[in-house]
Amino acid sequence: MATTSPVFNLWTSRMLSVLRIAAGFLFMQHGMQKLFNFPPGGHGSVQLFSIMGLAGILEFAGGLLLIFGLFTRPVAFILSGLMAVAYFMAHAPQGPLPIVNQGELAVLYCFLFLFLAVAGAGEWSLDSWRQRLQARR
Predict the structure, then answer these.
(1) Are 47 and 99 in contact (CB under 8 A)?
(2) CA 87 to CA 69: how far, in whole Å?
(3) Nearest to 69 by CA among 27, 117, 124, 133
(4) C-alpha closest to that of 127 among 72, 75, 90, 83
(5) Which burial class, exposed, middle or buried, applies to 6 when counting CB atoms under 10 A from its CB (0-12, 13-18, 19+)?
(6) How far is CA 50 from CA 31, 44, 75, in A?
(7) pLDDT tens across 49-70, in order?
(8) Where are the domains of the chain?
(9) Residue 97: helix, strand or coil by DSSP?
(10) Which one of 9, 39, 86, 136 is at 20 to 30 Å from 93 when CA atoms are compared?
């Protein structure tokens, strides 16, 4: 079995944090477009008490929680499910493959969030900070 460099070992958790922060920031923007029509260019604001409104709330709040790394595992699991539902409701009926039905982003987010649900938040997160505080007690 190959060994890894100490530098890679040091940066693995940190890069997990960078991945989580970037994904949260990008995902939060999808919610912002649905809820606030910002940044412009999306489908415009949606009704808050609709399926798209609920999706927007989950995207915005979930993305924000991921940015800070707070409750990362349960939030990522919920968002993974949201993206699976989005794919099968909106994209799968349009064709058999994600490249055909334009569902690549939903599939990618689904598996990225599933990975975060298993891997956790990484070193740079409020979850990690809370764990360190509890360990001191």
Answers:
(1) no
(2) 25
(3) 124
(4) 72
(5) exposed
(6) 13, 14, 21
(7) 999 999 999 999 999 999 999 9
(8) 6-136
(9) coil
(10) 39
